[in-house]
Amino acid sequence: MKHAPLSDQDYQRLETILQRFAAQGAMSLEQLDGFLAALLAGPESLSPQDCLPLILGDAFDDDDAFHNPKELERFARLVSGHWHDIAHALQHGDDFAPWLTPDAAGEVHGNDWAEGFYQGMQLMAEDWQLLFDDADAAPALAPILALAFERHPDPDMRPFIDGASRQQKDEWLGEIGAAVPAIHRFFAAIRARIEAEIAADEH
């Protein structure tokens, strides 16, 4: 089946809905992009439908958040559409371009994206440890975790106590495009190996 990506208008709708619920702890579109990238690149391709409470925050349980069930359904379809866009890019070896929203001054920081990715990692933290333990593959996580922890409330957890330089941030941001497909290939290889072992045992 041919992949039909979300349109610019779809993305505007998705961003508007998320902004509407920002005060209730909903993710921003940048955060959501990182979160879904982790779900797809990681140990198991988790469905975004199961994660709507995390995506919407308190708005998920707010009966007044959506005017009717169809509106929630439309939102879920948009999230699912974005998930499929990322999946298509990773499965077809396309360049991965993170959704990074500039601030009021036009600067891109990427912290929201990386924090969203890290939040996605926490859903299967034990299995992600396989990547941390692999000396060859683990460096792919370095730029993502550096950005994810740059604003950590505990200064000891930050990569630089006084914050990273603009040059350092640009380097991290530039590495994300290659890092996410590398992580996807790492876990895809593990899944393929397990499936091959199961198939061999069955014969």
From TrEMBL:
Signal peptide: none annotated. Pfam families: UPF0149. It comes from the Bacteria. This is UPF0149 family protein.
